[in-house]
TrEMBL record:
Alphabetical GO biological process terms: fatty acid biosynthetic process; steroid metabolic process
Family: Belongs to the short-chain dehydrogenases/reductases (SDR) family.
Biological role: Catalyzes the NADPH-dependent reduction of beta-ketoacyl-ACP substrates to beta-hydroxyacyl-ACP products, the first reductive step in the elongation cycle of fatty acid biosynthesis.
Organism this protein belongs to: Clostridium grantii DSM 8605
Pathway listed: Lipid metabolism; fatty acid biosynthesis
Domain of life, source organism: Bacteria
Name assigned to this protein: 3-oxoacyl-[acyl-carrier-protein] reductase
Length: 246
């Protein structure tokens, strides 16, 4: 149970972030729902969480911007008093072959998916160090481990998250803070709904369990790490991918 704990989930209005926010709220946490553009969805999620008896607020912030990430963290601290769990989930794709990839498409994916994670960690860690406790969970991807044609920008960012996770874990473990990453495989969300059925079938064939994952599969792993079950785990990358990458 996470009663009395405060969790920030970035990009929580929809997809995997929404499932994570709901899971943590169901386990008793106060949840900060960060969104960038999905205001209505974030507000609806606040209501849904309140209806199950937990507390939630929605906070608009583009986490790729250092100052906006700071405002998000400070707002969470102001409203709930502590920051116990930070889930860096927000992410984008701008897929294309390297030969045709624009500088902007490379840069914006790095800015959101990698620098955004740094920004939120950077502003949370001083508060967690004072508390001498905290759980940081970064959502990377199997493509950060394997690479993927057409996703040089995205897989570079996701591989970067793994280095960031391990280095940060080594720096702040002595202060009672754990830092881990979860590497989802192919999860059924808006991000993957753009793919054709043919492409999805090809991907399914490469998955040992022969099916796509659900956002809830990722949320369960986040809960495991965020709860006391994850107390002795740090610096790890846990794949939740139906057996895609091993
Ligand atoms: P999604 O449905 O496309 O949702 C992306 C979320 O990120 C949205 O809530 C969006 O918020 C938020 N976001 C994007 N840029 C942001 C920014 N600059 N600041 C704040 N929030 C921002 O994606 P998803 O499938 O749920 O993916 C969630 C995470 O899992 C991502 O990190 C993704 O890379 C990772 N992942 C997904 C899969 C998969 O198969 N789906 C696999 C591996 C890893 P707004 O709607 O408010 O803009």
């Amino acid at each position: 149970m996470l009663n009395g704990k405060t969790a920030i989930v970035t990009g929580a209005g929809r997809g995997i972030g929404k499932a994570i926010a709901l899971k943590l709220a169901n386990e008793g946490a106060n949840v900060v729902i960060n969104y960038r553009s999905s205001k209505e969805a974030a507000m609806d999620l606040v209501k849904e969480i309140e209806s199950i008896g937990s507390k939630a607020i929605a906070v608009k912030a583009d986490i790729s911007k250092f100052e906006e990430a700071e405002s998000l963290i400070l707002k969470a601290k102001e409203v709930f008093g502590t920051i116990d769990i930070l889930v860096n989930n927000a992410g984008i794709t701008k897929d294309g072959l390297l030969m045709r990839m624009s500088e902007d498409d490379f840069g914006s994916v790095i800015d959101t998916n990698l620098k955004g994670v740094f920004n939120c960690i950077r502003h949370s860690v001083p508060l967690m160090m004072k508390q001498r406790s905290g759980k940081i969970i970064n959502i990377t991807s199997v493509v950060g481990l394997m690479g993927n044609a057409g996703q040089a920008n995205y897989s570079a960012a996701k591989a970067g998250i793994i280095g960031l996770t391990k280095s940060t874990a080594k720096e702040i473990g002595s202060r009672g803070i754990t830092v881990n990453a979860i590497a989802p495989g192919f999860i059924d969300t808006d991000m993957t709904s753009v793919l054709s059925d043919k492409v999805k079938d090809t991907i399914k064939n490469g998955i040992v369990l022969k099916k796509l994952g659900k956002p809830e599969n990722i949320a369960d792993a986040v809960y495991f790490l965020a709860s006391s079950m994850g107390d002795y785990i740090t610096g790890q990358v846990i794949s939740v991918d139906g057996g895609m990458a091993f």
